[in-house]
Input
Amino acid sequence: MNATIRDVALAAGLSTATVSRALNGDASVSPAAAAKVRGAVEALGYTMNHVARSLKTRSTRTVGVIAPELASDFFMLLAESMDRELSGAGYGLIVCSSWESAEEEVKRMRHLAERLVDGLVVIPATGSGECLDRERQRRARDAGRAETPLVLVDRLAPGLEADAVLVDNEGGAYRATAALAADGHRRMGFIGGSLELSTARERYEGWLRAMRELGLPVEEEFTSFTGLHVASGYEAMRAMRARPGAPDAYFLVNAYVHVGATNYLVSEESPSRSAGVAIAAFDEMPYSPLLRFCRYSLSQPVAEMGVRAARILLGRISGDRSASPRTERLPATLIKHDVRYQ
Amino acid sequence: MNATIRDVALAAGLSTATVSRALNGDASVSPAAAAKVRGAVEALGYTMNHVARSLKTRSTRTVGVIAPELASDFFMLLAESMDRELSGAGYGLIVCSSWESAEEEVKRMRHLAERLVDGLVVIPATGSGECLDRERQRRARDAGRAETPLVLVDRLAPGLEADAVLVDNEGGAYRATAALAADGHRRMGFIGGSLELSTARERYEGWLRAMRELGLPVEEEFTSFTGLHVASGYEAMRAMRARPGAPDAYFLVNAYVHVGATNYLVSEESPSRSAGVAIAAFDEMPYSPLLRFCRYSLSQPVAEMGVRAARILLGRISGDRSASPRTERLPATLIKHDVRYQ
DNA sequence: CTGTTAGCGCATTCAA
DNA sequence: TTGAATGCGCTAACAG
Output
């Protein structure tokens, strides 16, 4: 077996209590004792058993992250920045996917709760608010104490009141739309996702407000809410371009849709037909300059969101769990891409 | 406090032992007792404390993953497929970044060991083999038992003997190079990464073997090992194209370099100058068809690699930890991209 | 089939 | 400043 605190105590000629205190940097340990402990630890190759400590302290120094999919650019940037921020405080990150299912999400949440995570970061799946809230209430009641801190990132979950770190989707969409309009585009298609998702809905609202305030026509046949993935972008663009009188300008809800739509235009339309197309879209990626029709993209401060979420969590963990939930909205940055032959 | 197994036992009028057995699906529990336990669990809202169980069983049902960076397409695809494979068996995934530093990697490994992870998946940082091996030996010795199962993914770590799941980098590079040659390209630039990385080295070796076997010239001034990122791709391509007599064909080590190189060509060269460029590169991405000069890409079976790694780990965890390490090499799929005006 | 008992490794009272 | 004793919640012998 591994050396235990007991072995260290024996080797150092001290009690386990003193060794424990020394190990945890308690000021009331004499320098002499501390040195003896250090020596014994070294000699035995002792490493602490975090599981035993957690059982005692009821803190695992772990935060759980639940996302609709792990393999997304947004999530991996988020995970990386959270890891950076949290590992300094000795926290680990346990990640799992809800597969965009509210039911699965609750299962995962329960599973993480059983593992006594100290905090939870959730990018909620569609329509998961009430489920999450119910589960949360239940656990809080059963535990007879405040619920584990939870912060929502990227999306809201209607029915769940919790801290949240979000992007100003509405404002970003508004500005990008206005920029396209300022370039002379008066008619504009919109390709988005289900309005049940707060991100998709807010981006739609921003686009809509811009169109209305600028007196531009909102044409239903060129407004689509088909989905957030490459295939839906391709399909939505195909459908729109098949209609007579399709506009030249488009607002796209994210990078996946952007890639899909561009794929359609590049592979199925003649260069002369697509020549005038101009696109504004959420998400700035390394390959954005290579998306042929991209004129404006909205860069999301994903890393910063991870930092904010981590700090909120740490604050809640070691502080006022009961303070009323706060929402932080970070701006998206509008990036202009030059027109150029590609 | 949360209800404990003791509370359930009291409520059900049974002993904690029986409750524990019922909870763990032991066949020797009578249906009547099992029903009583279910009832009590329901009534009390009992959920198991995994930490306590782990302390007793010395198994946390957790696997740790260490990668040089979390924000990479490869890593997130891997994490997603591992999560899918492992969550079914009740395992959680705790992820952390080594920031491409061997020193940090060992720290993380130590940290995960303290948390008693049941297994480790490592994408090793540059030159980390000996460090990892030393740490591993040390832990095994101190623990007085077999080391925790560890499987290497994507890259090898010279000096560390362990199970590994890899891609046939050499063969893939060979085939892509040969395909470019078959299209009539006799001179070919190579943009890769440090040869200390097994992936970069193997891809270089595959390219080199193809060039030699096909009797094509290997020109040092058009062979670069500058790095694996977007910026290095851009810079390497810039440097090569600045030389007189730059070739038209290029083999690129991965998607990031591919994006960078394409960015250079598209933004800094006239269409007439770059018109003849043809590229073969590792990694097939949703946006690959939009990379202007891409003729061949090598699709890596990342999800499959995650599944394999997970299964190897589960096998080691519940079986022969001492069987000699095995390496699985999965083929990369060569994908042809049509030339078309973009 | 079920209960009693004894720890897993640690932090933490309470005394000294 | 230190030590002895206790228990976190669970599983696993061992008996019955």
